Amino acid sequence: MISLLLASMMMVGLLAACGSSSSGNGEAAPGDEGKKAEEQVTVEFWTISLQPTFNDYFNKLITDYEAQNPNVKIDWKDYPYDAVLNKLMTNIAGGEAPDVVNLNTELANQMGTKGALVDLNQELTAEQKAAYFPGIYSSTEMGGQAYALPWYTGLPVLFLNKDLVEKAGLNPDTPPQTKQELNEWGRQIKEKTGAYGYIFTMEARTLLEENLPFLSEDYKKATFNTPEVEEYVNENLQLLNDGVIPKDIINYDKQVQYFASEQVAMSLSSSPFINKIKTAAPDVYEKMIAVPSPVGKAGIRYSNTMNLVVPAATSHKKEAVDFAVFVTNAANQLEFSKIANTLPSTVETAKDPFFSENDGTLEGVAKTVSAVSLDKAEDFYIGVESAKDVNQAVTKALQTIYLNGADVKKTLDEAEAEVNKILGD
């Protein structure tokens, strides 16, 4: 699910010169001695875990781009997610950083705050920027600067066990649209069936989803230690204590196990969850339906977006930005979505019938119900270099309360002190 990827985000700064190569002898071209041959440029392009599954797509995309830009050669390299950080650090140290890099939102923002990335607000036209969903584009926009072009994304879906929902006297055709309604459904499911209502996310981002205070506007001070947050946490504790939501579901496999064994009726997750249930419990898969995820008081749905960034030190900024725009344009995102089962970050792409029509299968419905939420999508991020540490500190505090029954006020006090220390370092 999306929370897993968010939890795995890494921190690093990109503070080195680009290692792209260029050639061109500078001599007059044959038959045109008054002009110099156009400089040949190699743009090094890094992606994360996309080879070999999508080789055909990227090979064609690169061939098309090079045909349109004969002076540019694209050198595509792909690395496993867990290896990207070390590889990037090694190349940085050796002065050979790539030109265009595929990064998640949190890492892109952290690198951007160090001045390591090109400000795309300065490079793109108003029309080019308007091509992307505003909430997703602005997720890497801070202080008037935009650090990344959003690429492919994903949004959570609420999966229901139709049998359990109906057994509880609820209508799956009118599913919960808000977190408050989700809680009400969960209580009724518990009361009528004995099953847990839904699987709960114990992460820092839940505070922002409910429009609760988190950090000061200048990101220099924790602001989440308030009576409002304390009340929200206590409400969730009551749901846990009443058996509306299970406690031991931090592990993704455990969440799959609960849903597959029909111990829980609802789960907020993403498309890969479908295959997990289909494999583990084909009979439960037949009972599953997908509906849009409920929203909290902030009215947003947190997406999980992969982006393209351009290192500020690149010697081929124009070509790198142009290629990044090409990769993320509406037509190319549509083709990628069709083969990768991802959602696009571009407004025009999402208008295609591919995202509004489906074959009636669970997979098809999950795609369409998530696509309709793109206009409410934002990526979760904290605009500081120490974002990962802040996120972990608050998440750990919430989990300590929810799982271990720790005193709410005391734990929030301790988390506030820890976050302020992190922000002050």
UniProtKB/TrEMBL annotation:
User: What is the annotated signal peptide range for this record?
Assistant: 1-16
Q: What is the species listed in this Swiss-Prot or TrEMBL entry?
A: Paenibacillus aceti
Q: Which PANTHER family match?
A: ARABINOSE-BINDING PROTEIN-RELATED, DIACETYLCHITOBIOSE BINDING PROTEIN DASA
Keywords, comma-separated and alphabetical? Signal
Would I find Membrane among this entry's keywords? no
What is this protein's name? Sugar ABC transporter substrate-binding protein
